Amino acid sequence: MTDVIASEWLKLRSLRSNLYLLACSLAAVLACAGIAFMIGRGFDNQTPEERLAFPGNGDGLGNGIAVAYFVFALLGALAITSEHATGMIQPSLVAVPRRQVLLLAKIPGVAGVALVAGQVLAFAMHAASMAVLGDRAGRLLREGVTLGTPLSEPGVLASVIVAGLSMAAVALIGLGVGAAVRSTPGALVVLTVLIVVLPVVARTLPMPLRARAGSFMIENLPLQIAGTGGGSLPPAVAAGLLVGYVVAALTAGATVIALRGRRIKALAIGVTTAVLVVAAPAVAADTPGAGAGALRWGGCADKGADKGTDKGVGKGLVKDLRCASIAVPVDWSRPYGRKIELTVGLLPATGVHRRIGTVFAVPGGPGGSGVQDLSTNAGSFAELRDRFDVVGVEPRNTIDKGVLPSDCLVSGPWITWPETREEYAELGRRNRAAAERCRAADPEFFDHMDSASVARDMEAIRVALGEERLSFITNSYGSMPGIAYSRLFPERVRAMVLDGAANPYVDRARGRLPHEESFGRFAAWCARASTCALHGQDVGEVWRALVARADRVPVPVKGESPRAAYSGLDIKEAAAPSVISPGPAPDFPRWTQLAEAIARAVGGDASGFAGYVRQSTNSLKVPSFTGMNMTHCLDGLGFRDYEEYRELRRQGERLLPNLAGIELWHPLACVGWPVAATNPPAPLPAGKLPPYLAVGSWTDFGGGADLVRRIPGSGGVQYLGHGHGLYNAGVSCVIAHVNRYLISLRPAAMGTVCPGPAS
């Protein structure tokens, strides 16, 4: 056998046409470079926002790999069809009467040449693409990848190596086809159909058939084997399929050239081998956890539509949003006790890439609806759904569960500054009365609204989904259930994004320093903008004088009772949302409204503040919502005692000259709360957690950054602009960094920034 292999190697290297063929493979490098050039030119002509949505070039091989495949397949086919064309097959068969041995002897030489040349060609194709793209290659896209992917990117080196290996596989396929057809023109036709025609036909099919058929095309197998996308097959299945193609082609060739009596035997052996090679990894990869689990998905009720509509997708919900119900214990310490139904929403994976898993989008509030968030912000998840299912939940602390009266949950007392121990106790009595009014309807339910209970509900959903681990995007106060889940189930966390996070560990006053900076931006804008009602004045001085006077003598609201008069604390709490979220540049409508309200209050009328507070809360002053407090207070947001309150107040007044008190608003609402904290802050098990990613704007990045610094390897992205809940808001740069992290599990380095909008 060794002599036969040596003779076949001599034939292969003596054929001058083989050298010409290998030289032609350089056309694949030129194709990759040419397409990369056109991509770069197109990218340069886009706006910054359009560039983020630009399609990536991947590892750069896809545009030339069909050319390379055709060359190597023809190399394999000519190894045997050239002998038939010249009549040299007869002397070969005289020398080697066993025809299948002759075919087998050709395999080492063809595979060896293709293996070496294929690796060189694959790396040359990648290098050419990257060189042409230049610095553009590193530009991050919304889909979570860069425009071009260097070898240092996860899976790229593997995909290039596998592409080189696949060229050797394609050469062997060509050898098998050539042996079966026995004609160079005939082999060309068959190989053209396999390498060119079938992929083109697959791309014309409607979705999702197009994606499924494309996954089985040879050109898409290397990326799937490397686990970097390109189709829906797991790596083991894709590798088995590529080997199966080779075995099938060689089996066809061995069957045709075999003597009559041995054809059936050759065919049976080859078919059996091919089936086993493909089926074994497919069975091994067929593990549970495809996202369906035990939940029964159906249409979603639109709570914003007519109350009589309880089935199907309502007017306010996206078409492909699905819903299911899950029963969880009201009290997780009694898992077999009373249950409550939660609604889970699902945006299923839609992309052509293999599904990675499930991302759990945790709503803020507390008490926001994750199902409504999925519907309202479905566009933000579009690229993520190439790789993930996205789920959300209407958590137990949403206000419209029908268990507690919603009217009492969306109202609450007006918070006042306690100046004495007696006033502190009086505030506690008012808070307790408001809480008891809601709690009386169902004390057991009311007492279990803490974020740890929400986290346990999330774990029940994970189990029902059949997922081994979950990835999370937490929004605003949704970080609190995320933190609780991290403490309770660290081994179930695959990845965690904290977007505009609430941080139970950070010092309250220091956590509001970015708000002071935002007030400074407001004052600077007033100095520049003639549309500001305070233009030409020292805004800081006017503001502080107003607040100090209002704390001594509250500013009345024209036409309302004296009780509605605004104290300095009321003014600061009413102004805070506008200070940090001014609206779009250059008009900044909320800053304009705020300046007008300040000017009116300086004149003795707080109607400007009361007007826009009433628009959003249906109250003349900002109320302390009982529906939020029932979670805040159980999460340990309150004060230990009056002495702690006084100490924290002094610290705030020292650090926050313009906004002192807003950091104590929610804790003051927990004074006198009827139920003790059940989920107080506790350390994270940092050593058991994967790296996390914090994202946030000027005013809310600091809290998330402080959180993730407690977990080794974590990173952070700051948006240099206003806003809160940036992923849901559709900020493309933030979406790109988050998607990249969720796909690759590599967070952006702390200190990474996203530019804000041009003002």
UniProtKB/TrEMBL annotation:
Q: Which GO terms describe its molecular function?
A: hydrolase activity
Which sequence ranges are marked TM in the entry? 19-40, 60-80, 101-125, 156-181, 188-205, 236-259, 266-284
Superkingdom in the source lineage: Bacteria
* Name of this chain's protein: Alpha/beta fold hydrolase
Give start and end of each AB hydrolase-1 domain: 387-543
- Which SUPFAM superfamilies does the record cross-reference, listed alphabetically? alpha/beta-Hydrolases
Query: Could you tell me which residue ranges the Peptidase S33 tripeptidyl aminopeptidase-like C-terminal domain spans?
Result: 665-754
Keyword Hydrolase attached: yes
Keywords associated with the record: Hydrolase, Membrane, Transmembrane, Transmembrane helix
